[in-house]
Design goal:
Chain lengths: ~80, ~375
């Protein structure tokens, strides 16, 4: 997987992780992949639902030491 | 326009006073479908906040201008953002302080009745979770039944009333919410009672709550009588208070009955549930007022916000008490059960004292409706 851009949103509370993810997504091209790092567990369902509604694809999601990692391909 | 902040207590008043309210819930659809703020006259619009990042213009026509609008999310952050956007668009709206998290924890104490010689019986209604706790007060003393985990609410209430908490009971080992019972007892020096049949795995000391246990509250000796009533759990115990009130725990609710599957196999306890509901309770006076440990739907609330109904009326109206055929009863309470409460196995472990999660983890475990009933 080629990561085009990484967004570190650790420590941010809702709604900032999604607000920043959206802004970062606006800067990459269709087909490119954004990596997002989060610590707000509430964002887990929200990021997935947001990506789906925006036509993006969550390629992978993992949790390591309380940090959530998302790999989202722009639609 | 200004953005107003409402507390969970203010929203609770809207529910109890039967007022109108328009709720814009900005959580994702799954969360909203699973669990929301229920009110008799509430209207809802569910649009996730992440669909409003580019602006709120599209939803403006859907928001009433002749009604109060409350924006709600999980913890508060997103509702503040959306409320501010709506405010900039010229609408006057409010957001719920602390979001669904604070709604889940809010308790409204409501007096059910006066008892003999100045005694009082209070029901603590946890609207967001459907949990009901009780406090019996008489001449400087108090007993608490099925306390939820917000121990301060009970100890502060006792302080306000100038009473000393002497006895704390749990009708059974709860699976849908974390009990505050033994912590209140530890903080106040009260005795903590639990049915021994539910307590085989607990790791703390308790006083056995068994059939026939009788406790007197205050000098006027308000009677609190234990009645063994298994079925939801094998230890489930009811109370008759002052010969007037029947506290049924999670065995009998207003519009439903207890489910037998949360602590074992439904098949094992369905016979006990039948015996309790169709024999043991039938022997009691029909004028007893039933006070359950839960409500499931907002329609179960009375006009004053309490959840209480005459036992004789429930024998007539509650579907679960009117299934003559035993095989059909068995099917009703074992087949097609609703989903189990969130994290119910972990919650049982907490109530046994086996795990001690921090406050945030406890909040997370208790998210969602209680789901202790079958209908």
């Amino acid at each position: 997987m080629n990561i085009t851009k990484t967004l570190d949103a650790k420590g941010l509370a809702c709604p900032m992780p999604i607000v920043k993810t959206k802004k970062a997504m606006d800067t990459i091209n269709s087909g490119e992949v954004l990596e997002v790092l989060l610590t707000d567990k509430g964002a887990l369902n929200d990021i997935t639902a947001w990506a789906k509604s925006g036509g993006h694809t969550v390629l992978e999601q993992k949790t390591e030491e309380d940090v959530l990692y998302f790999y989202i391909q722009k639609g | 326009m200004t953005v107003n902040k409402w507390t969970a207590a203010e929203v609770a008043r809207k529910v109890i006073d039967n007022e109108e309210l328009f709720i814009l819930d900005v959580r994702n659809h799954d969360a909203f479908e699973d669990w929301k703020i229920e009110g008799h006259k509430f209207e809802y619009l569910n649009i996730p906040y992440f669909e409003l990042l580019d602006g709120v213009e599209e939803i403006l026509p859907k928001l009433p201008t002749d009604k109060e609008v409350l924006v709600v999310c999980a913890k508060e952050g997103s509702s503040v953002m959306v409320a501010e956007m709506l405010s900039e668009a010229g609408r006057e709206v409010a957001y719920l302080e602390g979001g669904m998290k604070s709604w889940s924890s809010y308790l409204e104490p409501i007096k059910v009745s006066d008892l003999e010689n100045g005694g009082e019986l209070y029901q603590f209604v946890r609207l967001g979770k459907g949990c009901l706790s009780y406090m019996v007060i008489s001449e400087g003393e108090a007993a608490i039944i099925d306390a939820v985990r917000f121990t301060d609410v009970f100890t502060n209430f006792a302080k306000e009333k100038g009473v000393e908490i002497k006895h704390v009971f749990d009708t059974h080992l709860h699976a849908d919410h974390i009990s505050g019972g033994r912590h209140i007892a530890a903080n106040t020096g009260a005795t903590y009672y639990l049915p021994p049949k539910d307590a085989t795995e607990v790791v703390f000391d308790y006083t056995p709550l068994t059939e026939g246990l009788n406790v007197k509250i205050g000098a006027s000796q308000i009677d609190v009588n234990a009645l063994y009533s298994p079925g939801h759990t094998i230890g489930s115990t009811s109370f008759v208070i002052d010969n007037q009130f029947l506290l049924t725990g999670d065995i009998l609710f207003i519009d439903s009955i207890g489910r037998p599957d949360l602590a074992g196999l439904a098949e094992d306890w369905v016979g006990d549930l039948r015996e309790t509901l169709y024999s043991r309770y039938r022997e009691l006076a029909e004028d007893l007022v039933v006070l359950p440990a839960h409500f499931m739907i907002i329609d179960e609330l009375n006009e004053d916000g309490t959840v209480a109904r005459r036992l004789g009326d429930l024998f007539k109206e509650n579907h679960g008490l009117n299934i003559e055929d035993e095989a059909e009863f068995r099917r009703t309470v074992t087949d097609n059960l609703p989903p189990q409460p969130n994290a119910y196995e972990q919650i049982r472990q907490v109530n046994m004292g086996k795990i001690t999660p921090n406050n945030d983890e406890q909040t997370e475990m208790e998210i969602g409706p209680n789901r202790c009933a079958v209908r």
